[in-house]
Amino acid sequence: MPDDIVLPDRATMTDPFGRDITYLRVSVTDRCDFRCTYCMSEQMTFLPKKDLLSLEELDRLCTVFIEKGVRKLRLTGGEPLVRKNIMHLIAQLGRHIEAGALEELTLTTNGSQLTRFAKDLHAAGVRRINVSLDTLDADKFKSITRWGDLKRVLDGIDAAQNAGLAIKINAVALKGFNEAEIPDMLRWAHGRDMDMTVIETMPMGEIDEDRTDRYLPLSLLRANLSREFTLTDIPFKTGGPARYVEIAETGGRLGFITPMTHNFCESCNRVRLTCTGTLYMCLGQDDAADLRDPLRASEGNELVGAAIDEAIGRKPKGHDFVIDRRTNRPAVSRHMSVTGG
Ligand code: SAM
Ligand code: SF4
Hints:
Bound molecules: S-adenosylmethionine, iron/sulfur cluster
Helix content: 25-40%
Order of helices and strands: EHEHEHEHHEHEHEEEEEEHHH
Largest sheet: 12 strands, mixed
CATH class: Alpha Beta
CATH superfamily: Aldolase class I
CATH architecture: Alpha-Beta Barrel
Shape: globular
Strand content: 15-25%
CATH topology: TIM Barrel
Structural class: alpha/beta
Number of helices: 10
Radius of gyration: 20 Å
Protein backbone atom coordinates (compact mmCIF):
# COMPACT_ATOMS: atom_id res chain seq x y z
CA MET A 1 0.00 0.00 0.00
CA PRO A 2 1.44 3.48 -0.84
CA ASP A 3 2.55 5.44 2.25
CA ASP A 4 0.20 8.34 1.63
CA ILE A 5 -2.98 6.28 1.96
CA VAL A 6 -4.40 6.48 5.45
CA LEU A 7 -7.06 3.94 6.21
CA PRO A 8 -9.99 5.45 8.12
CA ASP A 9 -10.30 4.29 11.72
CA ARG A 10 -12.87 1.57 12.02
CA ALA A 11 -16.27 3.10 12.53
CA THR A 12 -17.60 3.15 16.07
CA MET A 13 -20.96 3.91 17.60
CA THR A 14 -20.66 5.55 20.99
CA ASP A 15 -23.59 6.16 23.31
CA PRO A 16 -24.13 9.23 25.53
CA PHE A 17 -22.36 7.49 28.43
CA GLY A 18 -19.21 6.88 26.39
CA ARG A 19 -19.86 3.17 25.84
CA ASP A 20 -18.85 1.87 22.41
CA ILE A 21 -21.60 -0.29 20.95
CA THR A 22 -19.86 -3.23 19.35
CA TYR A 23 -22.23 -6.08 20.06
CA LEU A 24 -25.56 -6.73 18.33
CA ARG A 25 -27.92 -9.47 19.39
CA VAL A 26 -30.58 -10.34 16.88
CA SER A 27 -33.72 -12.25 17.73
CA VAL A 28 -34.45 -13.88 14.37
CA THR A 29 -37.77 -15.33 15.51
CA ASP A 30 -39.92 -15.12 18.63
CA ARG A 31 -41.07 -18.72 18.05
CA CYS A 32 -39.65 -21.75 19.78
CA ASP A 33 -40.02 -25.52 19.93
CA PHE A 34 -39.80 -25.37 23.76
CA ARG A 35 -41.93 -23.58 26.32
CA CYS A 36 -39.53 -23.05 29.22
CA THR A 37 -41.64 -22.12 32.22
CA TYR A 38 -39.57 -19.05 33.23
CA CYS A 39 -39.52 -17.74 29.64
CA MET A 40 -42.93 -18.38 28.07
CA SER A 41 -46.44 -19.22 29.05
CA GLU A 42 -47.76 -22.43 27.50
CA GLN A 43 -50.23 -20.60 25.29
CA MET A 44 -48.06 -17.98 23.67
CA THR A 45 -49.29 -15.58 21.04
CA PHE A 46 -46.53 -15.09 18.51
CA LEU A 47 -45.97 -12.21 16.15
CA PRO A 48 -47.82 -12.49 12.84
CA LYS A 49 -45.41 -13.82 10.20
CA LYS A 50 -46.20 -10.88 7.94
CA ASP A 51 -44.57 -8.52 10.46
CA LEU A 52 -41.22 -10.29 10.34
CA LEU A 53 -38.22 -8.96 8.53
CA SER A 54 -37.26 -11.26 5.69
CA LEU A 55 -33.91 -13.02 5.88
CA GLU A 56 -32.61 -10.61 3.23
CA GLU A 57 -33.74 -7.63 5.31
CA LEU A 58 -32.11 -9.08 8.41
CA ASP A 59 -28.90 -9.52 6.46
CA ARG A 60 -29.04 -5.95 5.19
CA LEU A 61 -29.70 -4.54 8.64
CA CYS A 62 -26.93 -6.59 10.27
CA THR A 63 -24.56 -5.42 7.55
CA VAL A 64 -25.39 -1.78 8.29
CA PHE A 65 -24.64 -2.38 11.97
CA ILE A 66 -21.34 -4.04 11.09
CA GLU A 67 -20.39 -1.11 8.87
CA LYS A 68 -21.18 1.18 11.79
CA GLY A 69 -18.93 -0.62 14.24
CA VAL A 70 -20.52 -3.87 15.41
CA ARG A 71 -17.81 -6.55 15.84
CA LYS A 72 -19.78 -9.32 17.46
CA LEU A 73 -23.13 -10.64 16.31
CA ARG A 74 -25.23 -13.12 18.21
CA LEU A 75 -28.35 -14.70 16.77
CA THR A 76 -30.95 -15.67 19.31
CA GLY A 77 -34.70 -15.84 19.66
CA GLY A 78 -37.03 -17.61 20.37
CA GLU A 79 -35.10 -20.53 19.03
CA PRO A 80 -32.97 -19.19 16.18
CA LEU A 81 -32.54 -22.58 14.52
CA VAL A 82 -36.29 -23.10 14.04
CA ARG A 83 -36.62 -20.11 11.72
CA LYS A 84 -37.14 -21.39 8.19
CA ASN A 85 -33.98 -21.23 6.04
CA ILE A 86 -31.99 -19.73 8.88
CA MET A 87 -28.80 -21.38 7.64
CA HIS A 88 -29.07 -19.23 4.55
CA LEU A 89 -28.85 -16.08 6.67
CA ILE A 90 -26.03 -17.49 8.81
CA ALA A 91 -24.03 -18.48 5.74
CA GLN A 92 -24.55 -14.97 4.31
CA LEU A 93 -23.43 -13.30 7.52
CA GLY A 94 -20.36 -15.53 7.47
CA ARG A 95 -18.94 -13.36 4.68
CA HIS A 96 -18.29 -10.62 7.25
CA ILE A 97 -16.18 -13.03 9.28
CA GLU A 98 -14.26 -14.00 6.20
CA ALA A 99 -13.70 -10.34 5.33
CA GLY A 100 -12.50 -9.59 8.86
CA ALA A 101 -15.23 -7.00 9.47
CA LEU A 102 -16.87 -9.14 12.12
CA GLU A 103 -14.83 -10.75 14.88
CA GLU A 104 -17.44 -13.20 16.01
CA LEU A 105 -20.64 -14.69 14.67
CA THR A 106 -22.38 -16.80 17.25
CA LEU A 107 -25.73 -17.94 18.54
CA THR A 108 -27.64 -18.89 21.63
CA THR A 109 -29.69 -22.02 21.14
CA ASN A 110 -31.65 -24.56 23.09
CA GLY A 111 -29.69 -27.24 21.22
CA SER A 112 -32.66 -29.11 19.80
CA GLN A 113 -31.61 -28.64 16.16
CA LEU A 114 -27.85 -28.97 16.49
CA THR A 115 -27.54 -32.49 15.15
CA ARG A 116 -28.94 -31.08 11.93
CA PHE A 117 -27.03 -27.81 11.74
CA ALA A 118 -23.72 -28.16 13.61
CA LYS A 119 -21.56 -28.77 10.55
CA ASP A 120 -23.17 -25.97 8.55
CA LEU A 121 -22.67 -23.57 11.42
CA HIS A 122 -18.97 -24.33 11.51
CA ALA A 123 -18.74 -23.99 7.74
CA ALA A 124 -20.35 -20.54 8.01
CA GLY A 125 -17.61 -19.33 10.37
CA VAL A 126 -19.34 -19.91 13.70
CA ARG A 127 -16.79 -21.13 16.27
CA ARG A 128 -18.54 -20.81 19.62
CA ILE A 129 -22.14 -21.22 20.64
CA ASN A 130 -24.11 -20.98 23.86
CA VAL A 131 -26.42 -23.86 24.61
CA SER A 132 -29.08 -23.29 27.25
CA LEU A 133 -29.53 -26.24 29.55
CA ASP A 134 -30.94 -26.05 33.05
CA THR A 135 -30.78 -29.68 34.16
CA LEU A 136 -29.32 -33.06 33.17
CA ASP A 137 -32.30 -34.97 34.54
CA ALA A 138 -34.62 -36.03 31.70
CA ASP A 139 -37.83 -35.68 33.73
CA LYS A 140 -36.90 -32.32 35.15
CA PHE A 141 -35.84 -31.22 31.68
CA LYS A 142 -39.27 -32.12 30.39
CA SER A 143 -40.96 -30.27 33.24
CA ILE A 144 -38.94 -27.03 32.82
CA THR A 145 -39.05 -26.92 29.00
CA ARG A 146 -42.58 -28.43 28.80
CA TRP A 147 -41.90 -29.66 25.23
CA GLY A 148 -38.20 -30.49 25.17
CA ASP A 149 -36.36 -33.81 24.96
CA LEU A 150 -33.07 -33.96 26.86
CA LYS A 151 -31.54 -36.70 24.71
CA ARG A 152 -31.99 -34.66 21.61
CA VAL A 153 -30.18 -31.72 23.16
CA LEU A 154 -27.34 -33.92 24.43
CA ASP A 155 -26.99 -35.45 20.97
CA GLY A 156 -26.91 -31.90 19.62
CA ILE A 157 -24.08 -30.99 22.00
CA ASP A 158 -22.13 -34.05 20.83
CA ALA A 159 -22.68 -33.08 17.21
CA ALA A 160 -21.57 -29.51 17.84
CA GLN A 161 -18.39 -30.57 19.59
CA ASN A 162 -17.66 -33.08 16.84
CA ALA A 163 -18.08 -30.30 14.30
CA GLY A 164 -15.45 -28.25 16.13
CA LEU A 165 -17.72 -25.76 17.89
CA ALA A 166 -16.78 -24.60 21.38
CA ILE A 167 -19.77 -24.64 23.70
CA LYS A 168 -20.75 -22.67 26.74
CA ILE A 169 -23.60 -24.06 28.78
CA ASN A 170 -26.05 -21.45 30.10
CA ALA A 171 -28.21 -22.47 33.02
CA VAL A 172 -30.84 -20.32 34.65
CA ALA A 173 -30.47 -20.78 38.41
CA LEU A 174 -33.86 -21.69 39.82
CA LYS A 175 -34.54 -22.05 43.50
CA GLY A 176 -35.76 -25.51 44.44
CA PHE A 177 -35.30 -26.73 40.86
CA ASN A 178 -31.65 -27.00 39.89
CA GLU A 179 -29.74 -25.31 42.69
CA ALA A 180 -28.63 -28.65 44.16
CA GLU A 181 -27.69 -29.94 40.72
CA ILE A 182 -25.37 -27.10 39.69
CA PRO A 183 -22.22 -28.78 41.14
CA ASP A 184 -22.89 -31.92 39.07
CA MET A 185 -23.64 -29.88 35.97
CA LEU A 186 -20.41 -28.00 36.50
CA ARG A 187 -18.39 -31.22 36.72
CA TRP A 188 -20.14 -32.53 33.63
CA ALA A 189 -19.58 -29.35 31.59
CA HIS A 190 -15.96 -28.91 32.61
CA GLY A 191 -15.32 -32.62 32.12
CA ARG A 192 -16.35 -32.10 28.49
CA ASP A 193 -14.29 -28.97 28.10
CA MET A 194 -17.25 -26.61 28.10
CA ASP A 195 -17.50 -23.36 30.06
CA MET A 196 -20.64 -22.80 32.03
CA THR A 197 -22.58 -19.71 33.03
CA VAL A 198 -25.38 -19.38 35.53
CA ILE A 199 -28.02 -16.70 35.10
CA GLU A 200 -30.48 -15.12 37.50
CA THR A 201 -34.10 -15.14 36.37
CA MET A 202 -35.20 -11.80 35.06
CA PRO A 203 -38.72 -10.45 35.36
CA MET A 204 -39.67 -10.37 31.67
CA GLY A 205 -43.11 -11.07 30.27
CA GLU A 206 -46.12 -12.72 31.83
CA ILE A 207 -45.55 -16.40 32.58
CA ASP A 208 -47.80 -18.98 34.22
CA GLU A 209 -46.02 -19.10 37.57
CA ASP A 210 -44.88 -16.81 40.35
CA ARG A 211 -41.31 -15.72 39.67
CA THR A 212 -40.51 -14.81 43.25
CA ASP A 213 -40.82 -18.52 44.11
CA ARG A 214 -37.99 -19.40 41.73
CA TYR A 215 -35.66 -16.44 42.10
CA LEU A 216 -32.26 -17.56 43.39
CA PRO A 217 -29.71 -14.81 44.02
CA LEU A 218 -26.39 -15.98 42.61
CA SER A 219 -24.58 -14.62 45.66
CA LEU A 220 -26.26 -17.47 47.54
CA LEU A 221 -25.40 -20.03 44.87
CA ARG A 222 -21.81 -18.86 44.90
CA ALA A 223 -21.63 -19.20 48.68
CA ASN A 224 -22.99 -22.75 48.42
CA LEU A 225 -20.53 -23.67 45.66
CA SER A 226 -17.67 -22.33 47.75
CA ARG A 227 -18.27 -25.11 50.27
CA GLU A 228 -17.46 -27.69 47.62
CA PHE A 229 -15.14 -25.90 45.22
CA THR A 230 -12.33 -23.36 45.28
CA LEU A 231 -13.51 -20.35 43.29
CA THR A 232 -11.02 -17.72 42.14
CA ASP A 233 -12.15 -14.53 40.40
CA ILE A 234 -10.50 -14.13 37.00
CA PRO A 235 -10.56 -11.21 34.55
CA PHE A 236 -11.71 -13.47 31.65
CA LYS A 237 -14.31 -11.76 29.41
CA THR A 238 -16.29 -12.92 26.42
CA GLY A 239 -17.77 -9.54 25.56
CA GLY A 240 -20.85 -10.37 27.62
CA PRO A 241 -21.87 -9.36 31.12
CA ALA A 242 -20.71 -12.56 32.89
CA ARG A 243 -18.09 -12.32 35.64
CA TYR A 244 -15.95 -15.42 35.70
CA VAL A 245 -14.32 -17.56 38.31
CA GLU A 246 -11.99 -20.47 37.83
CA ILE A 247 -12.81 -23.67 39.67
CA ALA A 248 -9.61 -25.24 40.96
CA GLU A 249 -11.08 -28.74 41.26
CA THR A 250 -12.30 -28.95 37.64
CA GLY A 251 -9.89 -26.52 35.97
CA GLY A 252 -12.87 -24.94 34.16
CA ARG A 253 -14.56 -21.55 34.16
CA LEU A 254 -17.89 -20.58 35.64
CA GLY A 255 -19.61 -17.30 34.76
CA PHE A 256 -22.20 -15.48 36.83
CA ILE A 257 -24.73 -13.25 35.12
CA THR A 258 -26.33 -11.25 37.86
CA PRO A 259 -28.66 -8.62 36.47
CA MET A 260 -30.68 -8.62 39.69
CA THR A 261 -28.00 -8.51 42.39
CA HIS A 262 -25.31 -6.66 40.48
CA ASN A 263 -26.07 -3.94 38.02
CA PHE A 264 -23.81 -4.71 35.06
CA CYS A 265 -24.95 -1.81 32.92
CA GLU A 266 -21.88 0.39 33.24
CA SER A 267 -19.95 -1.75 30.76
CA CYS A 268 -22.90 -2.53 28.47
CA ASN A 269 -21.72 -2.61 24.85
CA ARG A 270 -24.80 -4.07 23.21
CA VAL A 271 -28.12 -3.40 21.59
CA ARG A 272 -30.83 -5.87 20.61
CA LEU A 273 -32.80 -6.17 17.42
CA THR A 274 -36.09 -8.04 17.21
CA CYS A 275 -37.27 -10.06 14.24
CA THR A 276 -39.64 -7.23 13.31
CA GLY A 277 -36.84 -4.67 13.13
CA THR A 278 -37.36 -2.99 16.49
CA LEU A 279 -34.15 -1.97 18.22
CA TYR A 280 -34.04 -2.14 22.01
CA MET A 281 -31.22 -0.20 23.50
CA CYS A 282 -31.60 -1.97 26.86
CA LEU A 283 -32.95 -5.41 27.76
CA GLY A 284 -34.60 -3.99 30.85
CA GLN A 285 -36.27 -0.88 29.43
CA ASP A 286 -39.20 -0.41 27.10
CA ASP A 287 -37.75 2.38 24.96
CA ALA A 288 -37.19 1.17 21.40
CA ALA A 289 -36.63 2.42 17.86
CA ASP A 290 -38.32 1.13 14.74
CA LEU A 291 -35.80 0.31 12.02
CA ARG A 292 -38.15 -1.55 9.70
CA ASP A 293 -39.81 1.53 8.19
CA PRO A 294 -36.55 3.39 7.47
CA LEU A 295 -35.09 0.14 6.12
CA ARG A 296 -38.00 -0.32 3.73
CA ALA A 297 -38.38 3.35 2.84
CA SER A 298 -35.38 3.38 0.51
CA GLU A 299 -32.95 1.05 -1.16
CA GLY A 300 -29.98 2.95 0.23
CA ASN A 301 -28.98 2.70 3.87
CA GLU A 302 -28.86 6.41 4.79
CA LEU A 303 -32.29 6.51 6.43
CA VAL A 304 -31.81 3.39 8.47
CA GLY A 305 -28.26 4.46 9.38
CA ALA A 306 -29.62 7.75 10.71
CA ALA A 307 -32.33 5.92 12.67
CA ILE A 308 -29.66 3.71 14.26
CA ASP A 309 -27.55 6.75 15.21
CA GLU A 310 -30.56 8.44 16.73
CA ALA A 311 -31.41 5.30 18.74
CA ILE A 312 -27.85 4.82 20.06
CA GLY A 313 -28.00 8.47 21.10
CA ARG A 314 -30.70 7.61 23.61
CA LYS A 315 -29.37 4.33 24.99
CA PRO A 316 -30.24 4.53 28.68
CA LYS A 317 -27.73 4.30 31.49
CA GLY A 318 -29.18 1.08 32.87
CA HIS A 319 -32.14 -1.09 33.74
CA ASP A 320 -34.49 -1.12 36.72
CA PHE A 321 -35.12 -4.81 37.15
CA VAL A 322 -36.64 -5.77 40.45
CA ILE A 323 -38.39 -8.94 41.51
CA ASP A 324 -40.74 -7.74 44.13
CA ARG A 325 -43.39 -9.63 46.04
CA ARG A 326 -45.57 -6.53 46.36
CA THR A 327 -45.87 -5.71 42.68
CA ASN A 328 -45.19 -9.22 41.33
CA ARG A 329 -45.39 -7.85 37.83
CA PRO A 330 -42.75 -8.22 35.16
CA ALA A 331 -40.39 -5.22 34.98
CA VAL A 332 -40.82 -5.22 31.22
CA SER A 333 -43.89 -6.64 29.57
CA ARG A 334 -42.22 -8.31 26.60
CA HIS A 335 -40.93 -11.85 26.93
CA MET A 336 -37.24 -12.71 26.74
CA SER A 337 -38.03 -14.55 23.49
CA VAL A 338 -38.88 -11.22 21.81
CA THR A 339 -35.55 -9.52 22.44
CA GLY A 340 -33.53 -12.70 22.94
CA GLY A 341 -31.43 -13.59 26.00
N1 SAM B 1 -34.02 -20.41 22.62
C1 SAM B 1 -32.66 -20.10 22.82
C2 SAM B 1 -32.15 -20.65 24.13
O1 SAM B 1 -32.97 -21.04 24.97
O2 SAM B 1 -30.95 -20.65 24.31
C3 SAM B 1 -32.34 -18.63 22.71
C4 SAM B 1 -33.30 -17.66 23.32
S1 SAM B 1 -33.50 -17.77 25.08
C5 SAM B 1 -34.68 -16.47 25.36
C6 SAM B 1 -31.97 -17.10 25.61
C7 SAM B 1 -31.62 -17.31 27.07
O3 SAM B 1 -32.51 -16.58 27.87
C8 SAM B 1 -31.70 -18.75 27.54
O4 SAM B 1 -30.46 -19.10 28.13
C9 SAM B 1 -32.79 -18.73 28.58
O5 SAM B 1 -32.54 -19.64 29.59
C10 SAM B 1 -32.74 -17.31 29.05
N2 SAM B 1 -33.99 -16.82 29.63
C11 SAM B 1 -35.24 -16.88 29.14
N3 SAM B 1 -36.12 -16.27 29.96
C12 SAM B 1 -35.40 -15.80 31.00
C13 SAM B 1 -35.71 -15.07 32.18
N4 SAM B 1 -36.95 -14.68 32.45
N5 SAM B 1 -34.70 -14.76 33.03
C14 SAM B 1 -33.41 -15.13 32.75
N6 SAM B 1 -33.04 -15.80 31.66
C15 SAM B 1 -34.02 -16.15 30.80
FE1 SF4 C 1 -37.50 -21.28 23.91
FE2 SF4 C 1 -35.14 -20.43 24.75
FE3 SF4 C 1 -37.40 -19.40 25.82
FE4 SF4 C 1 -36.74 -21.90 26.36
S1 SF4 C 1 -35.57 -20.07 26.92
S2 SF4 C 1 -38.77 -21.18 25.71
S3 SF4 C 1 -35.78 -22.56 24.53
S4 SF4 C 1 -36.73 -19.19 23.74
